[in-house]
Specification:
Blueprint lengths: L5 H6 L6 E3 L8 E5 H12 L3 H7 L8 H17 L3 E6 L8 H24 L8 H8 L4 H13 L3 E4 L4 H10 L5 E3 L12 E9 L2 E8 H13 L7 H11 L12 H21 L1
Parallel strand pairs: 2-3, 2-5, 3-4, 5-6
Antiparallel strand pairs: 1-7, 6-7
Helix pairs in contact: 2-4, 4-7, 5-6, 10-11
Length: 279
């Protein structure tokens, strides 16, 4: 999910990411990629052996208490910072990603089958235990989404359905001034030129640190590490760079990782692209 290798490059030594001071967020609107919360609650709950068994029981046993407790805590946290939360959910499947979605669905089915086999026989390939299998197999199901929508309605949380993928809707809302901040782990928002993107809330006991990608630092990274020239950022070039890195829309070129691409991108793509436009 996102651009392969881009977030890790931005995070190296903290050079191209920003620590957000809580006071910067007061009175601002936060657009949240709803599936980030949903994936987190499923992953967190999969640490509970009893939950894992119930999650894949036939018929499935309700587990809304796990979901509601997590969502209540998330909402309280952002409200305590003085933010208004707007949740954005994915809409229709993107046909461009059909092959990727098919592979992911097949992988999820295989993981679920492995967990069910363990629950029947008590054994698993590779000697995996229940929690390991459950972390692989517990996914965001229709039931999870149904409980989530019910929670949002009961708590009067603004909810917006994207035409397709949430990240495009979030960037559109940011560009239109409907939200100031985005909260997502999906780096696809970066080539869309999102401005302020919180990607992590890091907790140390009761203290927390907020980390964000910003468009200004993304531009700085591209000019310093890739183009080697200040003022050289062009959105078309950066989008092409992200495609070469590999993403949900295009696999990475074999044997061409970030280091190799950073050395050769300017010569093989950016300068040629600029020449073609002049011609």
């Amino acid at each position: 999910m996102g651009i392969d290798g881009l977030p890790s490059q931005l995070k190296v030594d903290g050079k191209y990411v920003s620590q957000v001071q809580p006071e910067m967020l007061h009175g601002k609107k936060l657009g949240v990629d709803a599936f980030v919360w949903l994936h987190r609650v499923v992953s967190k709950a999969s640490n509970d052996d009893d939950y894992c068994r119930r999650f894949h029981a036939e018929p499935q046993v309700p587990f809304y208490e796990h979901l509601y407790n997590f969502l209540d805590a998330e909402l309280r946290f952002w409200k305590s910072l003085g933010m208004e939360v707007i949740l954005v959910v994915d809409g229709k499947a993107n046909p461009i990603k059909a092959s990727v979605d098919t592979k992911r669905r097949a992988g999820r089915d295989k993981q679920v089958d492995a967990l069910k086999a363990f629950m029947t026989t008590g054994a698993a390939e590779g000697g995996k235990k229940l929690k390991g299998l459950a972390k692989d197999a517990c996914h965001v199901t229709r039931e999870v989404v149904s409980y989530f929508l019910q929670w949002a309605n009961e708590n009067s949380v603004a909810l917006i359905g994207a035409p397709m993928e949430a990240e495009h809707q979030l960037v559109y809302m940011q560009n239109e001034g409907e939200i100031e901040w985005i909260y997502t782990v999906d780096s696809d928002v970066l080539p869309l030129c999102a401005t302020n993107v919180i990607y992590e809330v890091k907790w140390d006991r009761r203290n927390f640190t907020l980390w964000a990608f910003t468009h200004d630092l993304v531009v700085k990274f591209f000019e310093e590490e890739v183009m080697k020239k200040k003022g050289s950022f062009r959105r078309d070039d950066f989008v092409a760079y992200c495609i070469f890195l590999g993403c949900d829309y295009c696999d990475r070129i074999p044997s061409v990782g970030p280091a190799t691409l950073n050395k050769s991108f300017k010569a093989v793509w950016a300068e040629k692209s600029a020449d073609d436009k002049v011609a």
